[in-house]
Each structure stands twice: as C-alpha cells, then as structure tokens.
Amino acid sequence: MPIIRLDDRALITVAGADAETLLQNVVTPDLTSLGQGAAKPGALLTPQGKILFDFLIARDGEQGFVLECRADIADDFLRRLMLYKLRAKVEITKQDQCPVLVSWQNDSDGSRLESPGLETDSGALDDSRFPAELVVRRYHHAAPDAPADTGQEAWTRLRIEHGVAENGADYTLGDAFPHDVLFDQNGGVGLRKGCFVGQEVVSRMQHRGTARRRLLIARARSPLPAPGTPVTADGRAIGTLGSVAGENGLAIVRIDRAKAAIDAGTAISASDVAVTLEIPPGMDFSFPEPKSDGAAQ
Fold first, then answer.
1. Residue 268 contacts residue 261 (beta carbons within 8 Å)
2. E-assigned strands of the chain?
3. Which of 60, 90, 214, 239 could make an S-S bridge to 16, C-beta 3.0–4.6 Å?
4. What is the pTM of this model?
5. What is the pLDDT of residues 250-273, one digit of tens each?
6. pLDDT, tens digit, for every residue of 138-160?
7. What is the number of alpha carbons within 13 Å of residue 141 lying toward its C-beta?
8. Architecture in CATH for domain 3-110+120-158
C-alpha cells in the first residue's frame, strides 16, 4: 500500500447548526449524498460558472464539514466563505499544521491492507474521485511522524490513469468550468440539487450538451514535454498539457477538435511529441460525432 505525504494541503472546518444549509446553497456538490467517511470533490464558482476555489469535502461529526484545499489558497478561500456566512450559525476556521497523507490499494485481491497509524485513524476518508475498488484513502489527522514511503510521481501517475485533475497542475483557478475537469462525472457537481453560486451556467452547459473542453489522458511513446505545453493538431492548438509522468499525462482538450483531427487522420502532438488522446475510464461522455454537414454535434 503506497503512502504519500501531501505537504501543499490545508484544512478548513465549517461547523454549526447551519453548516450544511450554508454549504449546500453555495458550493457545487450535493451534500445530501455525502456519507460519513467519504471525501468528494467540490468547488466554489464565480457567478459565471468558473472554478474560483476547489476542494475535497467530508463530514466532520454531526454538524460539521472539513474542506481540504491547496494550502496557498486556503486563506483566500476562508475569507470568501466568510462573506456568505452572514447570520448563519456556523464557525469557519483554518486548521494549521495538519498533515495530509494518502494511501491506495494496489493489491489484486482488493482487501484493505493494514498500516500502523493510518488504517485505525479516525480521519481516514475514501477519496470518491477514484474507483471504490482501488481504495484511495486520505488521512487528515495522521500522526506527524506517520510513514510516507512513496514519492510525488507515484501519486501523479495514479491521478493520470484515473483522470483526476488538480488545480495548479492541470488547470488555473478562475479559468475552468466544472465540466472541463470532470466534476459532472465524479460527483463534484450536484446537477439536481438546486441553486448554488454559478448554477445557471453549469446547468445550461449540462442540459444543452455544450461541454467541449474535457480532461483527457494523453499518451506518447517518448517522454511528454512540460505541463503547459499546447496540444496541437495540424499546427492548431486544441488544448493544453497538464500533469505529466513520463510518457503519460493529462490534458484539457477541445474534444470536438480532437475528434475532427482523429477522423481526418491528422497527427496530434505536444511540442514535437506525437500523442494519442483517450477518455479516462468510467466516464459517460464520448467524442462528439460529426453531423452530416461535417460539423461536430
């Protein structure tokens, strides 16, 4: 069971009688489907529907939630949440110096392995962005000296193989819609829960089927270039490379343009490296089919 320490994470707690109502009305995930012991992705959007802050959210006791986010945005995120507090009966605080560890199961029998100081920890949460059988667990209250035996690249490879994006590495806050990073696929958006900030734009994109930028897996036969490299077809940019681990990476791509290139037999590349693009496993969207006049649907 690989274990990695994520040093760039922070925890924000929202607790009190009105905590669930406040968050349900502001952030994207549907909290009514969030059970104890699970962490699901979510975001606070701009009114225009773009991701302003993203996080993983989990229940914390009977009337509380813990939101795990990137450490360098935590203070700004906390201040933004405070703007929505008004008279709600909640306390919003940032927890300092809380190690976040991640482990995942790579044993073929699917059983949960024991690891001292981790499996028995009350802060262990199943990361719902990954298949349940993989058992990816996050530990918010692990001991400071809890073991970490795996480097960052192993975690990056795991995210790539399952199409799990992270801001900073794969997209810029304020620039991406939830559909771009597959929040409509992995529970990061409650499409039936009602209002939240930016909800009208997200719902319109969902119901009209207008999501054209999608997170895809990019594969090559040689090492991929650095994150941020444009993905091109016939010299025309169709997306941008994100996280990279050797010959594999993530890229947010215009899937209509990618499909047109694939159908035309046009080479797709990142810098001078030829790549193939594929939809991450378990997703229920596909490359759009062309209309009879040649335009993508």
1. yes
2. 3-6, 9-15, 38-45, 51-59, 64-70, 91-95, 100-104, 124-127, 136-139, 213-219, 230-233, 236-245, 248-254, 268-270, 273-274, 276-278
3. 90
4. 0.91
5. 999 999 999 999 999 999 999 999
6. 999 776 677 777 788 999 999 99
7. 8
8. 2-Layer Sandwich (3.30)
